[in-house]
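Before a colleague's protein record goes any further, I have to sign it off. Alongside the sequence sits a line of tokens, each denoting a local backbone shape. I want your independent view on whether this chain really folds as the tokens say. Where you disagree with what is written, explain briefly why. This is what I was given:
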Amino acid sequence: MNRVNKFCFLLLTSILILANTYIKAQATWSTVNGIVLGGDYYQITKNQNHKKGAFWNVDMIDLDKPFQLYFKFNFGNSNNGADGIAIVFQKSPSGIYAIGDDGANMGYASSGTPVLSPSIDLEFDTYDDGAWLYNDIPDDHLAINWNGSTNNVLHWASPLLPNGGNVEDNLYHIVHVTWEPTTTTMEIYYECTLIKTFVWDLKNWGFGGDNLIYYGVTAGTGSADNAHNFYDLYHTAGADLTICPGDPVTLEASSNFTTYSWSPSVGLSCTNCINPVADPSIDTKYIFTGTVGCLTITDTVDLTTYCNPLPIELVYFSAACSKQTVELDWSTASELNNDYYVLERSSDNLHFASIGTVDAAGNSSSAKNYSFIDQNPLMGGAYYRLKQVDFNGSSTFSKVQSVSCNSELGIFIYPNPSETETILQIQSSEKTNAVCEIMNVSGNVVFKKEIQLLQGSNELQIDESHFAKGIYDVSLVSRNKVVHTLLVVQ
């Protein structure tokens, strides 16, 4: 079987904006065969026979910690259609590339050797394949299976509706999953009604003691079909922060609720908006409450008030190509309670990962020079930043540096995030024509321009004054080469 027919990264757009700093509060998905419909809506399978699809969150979930997952599922419009949607927790060797078979296997199970193993599979089944074969019941139902097989039953089928029947009404229905590790209890809700309480040690019995696993949704069609779509009800009130009174921050919840409420009101510019400005004079825990349909969801953000001197005086931070590596250099004029540095790298200037650490001087009033070599730089170029960490665990970041080494075609953006204008720095190995296109999260093209590239470095100035705030996909197409990056407009 072909492991991956199509793979792309999808960025959901709930972001917390804090002054000039962006704190990521978004889910990042990968898909096998799926389609981005825009606005947090995704299609797992088309309304066609013998299709299969999967979406996996690239950030693993921790079974040692409680969690809650919220989705809206659309099972299609045909009561005679098939086959349904599954929520899958897995640690398959294929990871975010994993996909099972179509039909009654619903994209997670396999007719032969299981692909998604080990796994726990919450099956929202809309087609009766017969109790003799798949332990099905006539009503659309929820069953719990394991290790990528519809015959490995952990929990027998339960109807989704109180009086049984079908759920293929072409509407989006809220699905909610909770996990409590202290009692090893999972609860699954459909339209805010508890369908199953599942007590099972997922970590030790299901995943051999491994607490970090992938999760996602899959679907499949067979000789009968339905379009299977989902909406991600990702929610957050943002990251906990330490702020200095008089330096306000903007809180921003996810935009997929219908009502918003913040409390207490002290230090807030508004209490019933998405993004109040917060400037408390004392340590404050803000509680966010959002409602959508039958759901009421809460989250908190802690703002600690403290003003302290800057931990380091950074003279410069640079990134430069050096043969087949990238050399990162920086210098400080002074350091205060400085424990160590973390070198971070990104392919899109939004999602950074650590590539190494360097011990700091601790306390110093004289110049200090540091360097680090990225021995395995990304193809096509990358963004780098320096994270400074104090002895107490607090941290600050440098400005981002970009570099492209031995790339036929590369694109970098600065400043990013930006407000009214940005520069696209384009690296080309030859003189050629190209098309630059900028697309919003709904898939609408907001900028398109044909340009002639010279060999080496090129620049394109973009006027963003007519762009709405949000995340944009920036693509550059030249002959048979395509490169992408992300632009954030604030």
Notes: DSSP finds two helices and 38 strands in the chain. Residues 202-206 form the longest helix (5 residues).
